[in-house]
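User: I'm putting together notes for a lab meeting next week and I want to include a structural view of one of the chains we've been expressing. I don't have a solved structure, so I'd like a prediction I can at least talk through. The sequence is below, exactly as it appears in our construct file.
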Amino acid sequence: MTSLDRNQLQQMILFSELEESHLDLLLDRHRETGYQAEQVIVMEQDWGESIFLLHHGLAKVRTYTADGDEVVMSLLGAGDVFGEMVALDGSVRSADVVALTPLQLVKLRVPPFKSLLQENTVFALALARLQVSRLRDLNRRFALQTGDATTRLLDALAYLARKSSVSNDPQALIPALPQRELALLAGLARETASRTLSKLRARGTVSELDGGLKLADLQPLRKRGLID
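Assistant: Thanks for the context. Below is the predicted structure for the 228-residue chain, given as structure tokens.
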């Protein structure tokens, strides 16, 4: 993977309206590191010392219920920032972040990020829009928890596709993931997710491509109001 430079940073939505001097400030003494699938990047209740930018790959934000059941709160794709709350309130991490695929991560220093938030309204608003988008995704997904298995799995697949694409494309290639991860994201038992996925393949709604999955037909999602 290539090292993140100023031009690549500016192509990411959160940083797209920043001036070159601001981009250089954020990249000052940044660090880059790689993770393999299933590696834990940050843990809940850790003290935050960095803000993270996902350069390539896919990760999940997870927590656990009082009964010890894993809950996937959101997905993170290329261009997503996480751990930014440390720049706002200095609090501990609120959830685990775990790599779903091999990924490249950029660690940004907190002081420049925090300073830019305080001084640049455009950047602060861009971060607020990012957080609002995450909240909407979370609300939508929780609202679907009473839906049928097909609806929940289709929504999970579309979410994975969008996060795997720089253009937010619901028909982008979904990387090969264990069925356990698909089930967790959809809020289904593994066996239920497996049966439902088999049905979607048989109907031609989902196809296999390059070892991954793709939503070949979006009409079932439109009928369920999952996409416009």
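A couple of points you could mention at the meeting. The first strand starts at residue 31 and ends at 35. The CA atoms of residues 96 and 133 lie 19 Å apart.

User: Perfect, that's what I needed.
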